[in-house]
Design goal:
Layout: H1 2-15, E1 30-34, H2 38-66, H3 73-98, E2 104-108, E3 113-119, E4 125-131, E5 135-136, E6 147-149, E7 152-154, H4 164-171, H5 177-185
Amino acid sequence: GFIFQVTSFQGVAVRSLSTSSPHDHPEHGRLVYKGNLAKTVLGVKFFSYSTSVFNLFMMPYIMLKSGIGVESLLVQAAFYGLIGVFTFVTPVTLHILTKGYVIRLYYKDEVDTYTAITYNAILAEKATVFHQKDVKIPDITKMFTTFYAKTKSMLVNPTLFPNPQDYNHLMGYDKSSFFKFEELEE
């Protein structure tokens, strides 16, 4: 029941902003990026969580009906191990892989700060505010990280920025010596 309450609460929060788009948050600045996998990430995490809850409730019933409790210790250990993987490891792994997926990114020009909206462990939206100077690009390409905001890894798709200049500024490419050198030549 808890997970259902969180999701329905999000729906209520979004509907209460009736006059404007659900993604307009003037306090965060202007919307510069919207991840196209947000619904997929939420759906997969929700499915994973709900199957875990289902497994927890069904485990005693399955053990009772199948008589596994009477079998050897090895069979019991294998059974608990398998159920444990699907019940705990999968949701935790999914959360670790998707926690940095940026659903929306806002930018405040006047203070040069970004607000990244991601999903937290209980499927609610979480806002992370950081300055452009806090952005660090990993030395080697990482699978689930485009950049680090302070120490938090963030994943964005560069092609989904409506204005490529917003991506260049986020990554600090507009400040690099390469661009300044080109400007001097012109």
